[in-house]
Design brief:
- The structure holds two protein chains of two kinds.
- Helix content of chain A is 30%, strand content 31%.
- Chain A is of the alpha/beta class.
- A seven-stranded mixed beta sheet of chain A has the order 12-11-10-9-13-14-17. A five-stranded antiparallel beta sheet of chain A has the order 5-6-2-1-7.
- Chain B is an alpha/beta fold.
- Chain B folds into three domains: 6-117, Fumarate Reductase Iron-sulfur Protein, Chain B, domain 2 (Orthogonal Bundle), CATH 1.10.1060.10; 133-228 and 386-451, FAD/NAD(P)-binding domain (3-Layer(bba) Sandwich); 232-383, FAD/NAD(P)-binding domain, CATH 3.50.50.60.
- In chain B, the strands form four sheets. A five-stranded parallel beta sheet of chain B has the order 3-2-1-4-16. A five-stranded parallel beta sheet of chain B has the order 6-14-7-8-9.
- The chains are: A alpha/beta, B alpha/beta.
- At the A-B interface, helix 1, helix 2, strand 8, strand 15 and helix 9 of A face strand 5 and helix 13 of B.
- Bound molecules: flavin-adenine dinucleotide (FAD) (2 copies), iron/sulfur cluster (2 copies) and FE2/S2 (inorganic) cluster (FES).
- The site of one flavin-adenine dinucleotide has 23 residues of chain A, from strand 4, strand 6, helix 2 and helix 10.
């Protein structure tokens, strides 16, 4: 069992949990994730390790209420227990010293890029961060990210903060400008990652994306997370979740994510009934 | 052995075989002629004293029988249900030459079930042997057996399991209707009662590495991480929605109880016209699960002929009784999806049998121009599993075969001093009892190694 130490609401429908998981806190590296199962009847849900406090034996996760399981998770409070936490999972981010690295986070992906920002910065890179969300109140951890970056750009869909528009607009301008970008690292909704990938492909800038495939065991046994990368089938839970964006079959990713759409609705209704009393 | 009628059992996931009554069991055990030189024992990979336990059973002394069995086999309720007895102990039973062999497996099951129902069975904890710590990776049949034996020898054993439940394939693969999960749970409880500490949600190679286990004071390590990596068809369209690897489908149904969705939150698709590729135990289990989830038609598609089907005969028969269709000598060439990316057809090619291949089975050869299409709304790929690559990848010093199997010497020792391995991670997908045999052998080798 893993105790929730702290719970914080970061924005509408977005929550942070700090959870006891000493072995994971010790071993976790940037880019890795965990799988949680809230209770006996729960699903196995993959979530990025948003930060860790090895000295306290805790990790942080930040999640958006998307459907049944995340809604259920959001109903838990500090002091509650989570049945199962497995991790750290996935291949750690390959952090190298290149020159200028642009890290991009979109939506709840903003919360997931913090460990990568710190690691790329510590490796001696110039670090430019671009974050984008629908509106101002969904910009997570903005001050923490600003502090860790050399430069921060912000976009919102509605213009309530930063530039009105998408993260890929800023990226495009940067590419057209003076600065030479060596590496782009992007985490966020599939359409955002695809847009970023298209922009950098044209400019031949190496780009890493962290893919949110469906997952089940997350130890390489079931194959639900499979995705075609460079013409080969890869398992995102063990081979990824980070891949070379220019080789990813995004259309296949979108299709596979839709597999359980009807069932997800049914599950959400069930959980809403449970939580509604 | 009595079983539930097919039209009744396909409506739920409850067990199919009902087991012997006491009278039936005693009568069956009496058929054993107590051979002086019992062939059956040689047919059992863990060498249970079969005439010995049958003698007790024939006298109605069930406690004696189960004790005898447990001298060699710590999971009798499991083996009695899933061992391929017809290829092992029962195949060589002397009575089989002229008539029917003694139903050894069913009797083993009877004795184990009787004990479960009549006696609280905690094992005796051995005295701690100078507190020497040993770790076991994986809690499938290989790991459970090795851990149990080591604990009996007096070692302090910690068993690490990556999933949230122990049991390996017994929990996530083999369905409830063939092996009730309650039985697996009790067998695991028994091993724990011997003093084994179980730690779930620990993926060795990631949560802790093999090196870190040594640093934490474990003096020897047994790797029983199984063959969990699904083999792929390698045809176009394999990633369409509704195409499952059998592991995913069975994991959802068995371990996550998706048949009770949405009370259990993990979903599973419930196809109406289902194609299953392969004809081993995994394929039979997947097909029969799909049927129980409400499919109208489930077809087993196999590229060889009936004689080559690797599944247990009994399970093939049961699948057939339940209405599973068998399309033999066909191989898939493509999986065809609709405009939303969901599987709608599979394209198949007819095959004929040619010369025997390396496995001694006749090689299927495509019949040119024989392509045809089958309408389906779900497909399950069950063409075998390979050794789980995670630990070898995280542990470069651990030597493996090209196909992924961990290399061991005849004492189950790997290329790393103090690290032993057995079960499917060494053999590739094999059987429960061979994994248990390996776990046993490894426990002995570890004991020898630590005494040195
Ligand atoms: C490696 C990895 C790391 C992740 N890290 C985080 C994280 O740090 N924070 C976070 O909020 N989420 C993260 N996700 C996504 C998260 O796992 C899903 O949001 C979650 O499983 C949804 O479960 P649910 O039952 O609440 O919703 P569901 O009922 O499963 O889905 C509800 C809706 O969300 C969409 N959806 C479901 N799964 C995904 C997905 N994987 N990606 C995009 N959309 C999806 C569905 O299409 C559906 O419309 C991660 C996923 C992976 C694979
Ligand atoms: C659907 C199906 C039906 C079958 N039917 C039969 C049958 O009827 N009769 C028969 O004899 N055999 C059958 N088999 C084969 C049999 O189940 C296996 O041969 C046997 O379970 C192998 O045992 P094992 O202990 O080596 O591995 P497994 O049972 O695979 O157990 C390995 C365990 O290790 C865990 N693990 C893996 N990696 C790690 C890690 N890095 N860290 C921690 N834990 C890890 C896994 O999660 C798993 O729990 C069947 C197999 C399947 C899939
Ligand atoms: S363990 Fe398997 S092979 Fe051995 S006696 Fe029992 S059923 Fe037969
Ligand atoms: S071979 Fe058959 S008859 Fe002989 S001892 Fe074994 S079970 Fe009994
Ligand atoms: S989630 Fe099962 S193999 Fe990746």
């Amino acid at each position: 069992m893993n105790k929730i130490i702290k719970k914080e609401q970061l924005a509408y429908n977005i929550h942070l949990l700090e959870v006891e998981a000493p072995l994971i806190a010790r071993a976790a590296k940037p880019g890795q994730f965990i799988v949680i199962r809230i209770n006996e009847k729960g699903e196995r849900v993959p979530l990025t390790i948003a930060d860790k406090h090895a000295e306290n034996g805790t990790i942080e996760i930040i999640f958006q209420e998307a459907g049944a399981s995340t809604k259920f998770l959001a109903s838990l409070k500090a002091g509650d227990q989570i049945n199962d936490i497995l991790g750290p999972l996935g291949t750690p981010a390959h952090i190298e010293k290149v020159d200028t690295v642009v890290v991009i986070g979109g939506g709840v992906g903003i919360a997931e890029i913090y460990p990568a920002i710190k690691a790329y910065k510590n490796a001696g890179n110039k670090l430019v961060t671009i974050i984008g969300a629908r509106s101002k109140d969904l910009l997570l951890k903005e001050s923490k990210i600003k502090e860790a970056s050399d430069e921060l750009h912000v976009t919102t869909d509605d213009g309530s903060a930063g530039r009105k528009g998408f993260v890929s607009d800023i990226l495009k301008e940067m590419i057209e400008g003076e600065e030479k970008i060596s590496l782009v690292y992007a985490v966020g909704p599939v359409p955002m990652m695809e847009a970023v990938s298209n922009v950098t492909k044209a400019a031949a800038i190496k780009t890493i994306v962290s893919l949110n495939t469906l997952m089940l065991d997350a130890t390489g046994m079931c194959g639900v997370c499979r995705i075609t990368v460079g013409g080969k089938i890869k398992f995102a839970c063990v081979d990824g979740p980070e891949f070379d964006a220019h080789l990813v079959d995004f259309a296949e990713l979108r299709s596979r994510l839709a597999t359980y759409r009807d069932k997800e609705k049914e599950a959400l209704e069930h959980v809403c009934r449970l939580l509604g009393g | 052995m009595p079983e539930r009628p097919a039209n009744d059992r396909i409506k739920d996931f409850n067990e199919v075989a009902l087991g012997f009554s006491l009278d039936e069991a005693v009568a069956e055990a009496k058929r054993c002629i107590q051979c002086k030189n019992p062939k059956c024992v040689g047919g059992c990979p863990v060498e249970i004293d079969i005439p010995g336990f049958l003698k007790y059973l024939a006298a109605g002394e069930i406690e004696g029988a189960i004790k005898k069995i447990k001298e060699k086999n710590s999971l009798p309720a499991v083996c009695g249900r899933v061992c391929p007895q017809e290829d092992q102990c029962e195949k060589v039973c002397i009575l089989g030459i002229k008539g029917k062999p003694v139903a050894i497996g069913a009797l083993e099951r009877f004795a184990a079930d009787w004990e479960r129902e009549h006696k609280a069975k905690a094992g005796d904890k051995a005295k701690d042997k100078d507190k020497v710590k040993v770790s076991v990776v994986g809690s499938g049949p290989a790991g459970l057996t090795c851990a149990g034996d080591l604990a009996r020898m007096g070692y302090l054993v910690t068993m690490f399991e990556s999933l949230h439940l122990p049991g390996g394939v017994l929990s996530y693969g083999i369905p409830e209707f063939r092996l009730p999960k309650e039985i697996v749970k009790l067998e695991v409880e028994f091993v724990k009662s011997l003093g084994v500490e179980l730690m779930c949600n620990a993926l060795i190679g990631r949560t802790l590495t093999i090196d870190e286990l040594f640093e934490q004071g474990y003096k020897a390590i047994f790797i029983g991480s199984g063959a969990g990596l699904p083999n792929q068809l390698g045809v176009p369209g394999e990633n369409s929605q509704g195409v499952y690897f059998a592991n995913e489908f069975l994991f959802r149904v068995n371990m996550m109880k998706a048949y009770q969705f949405p009370e259990y939150l993990t979903p599973v698709l419930m196809g109406k016209k289902v194609a299953v590729f392969g004809a081993g135990n995994v394929a039979m289990d997947a097909a029969r699960c799909a049927l129980r989830l409400g499919a109208d038609k489930v077809s087993i598609l196999y590229r060889r002929s009936r004689a080559e089907m690797p599944a247990r005969k009994e399970e093939i028969l049961r699948a057939e009784e339940e209405g599973i269709e068998f399309a033999l000598l066909v191989a898939p060439t493509e999986i065809i999806a609709d405009d939303k990316g969901r599987v709608k057809q599979v394209e198949l090619l007819k095959m004929e049998l040619g010369e025997p291949d390396a496995s001694g089975r006749r090689r299927p050869v495509p019949v040119a121009g024989s392509e045809f299409k089958l309408d389906v709304d779900m497909a399950i790929v069950a063409i075998g599993n390979s050794p789980n690559p995670l630990i070898p990848r995280a542990t470069p010093e651990l030597k493996t075969e090209k196909w992924g199997g961990v290399i061991i010497n005849n004492e189950t020792a790997t290329s790393i001093p103090g690290v032993f391995a057995g079960g499917d991670i060494v053999r590739g997908a094999a059987t429960v009892i061979s994994a248990m045999g390996d776990g046993k052998a490894a426990a002995k080798s570890i004991d020898n190694y630590l005494k040195r």
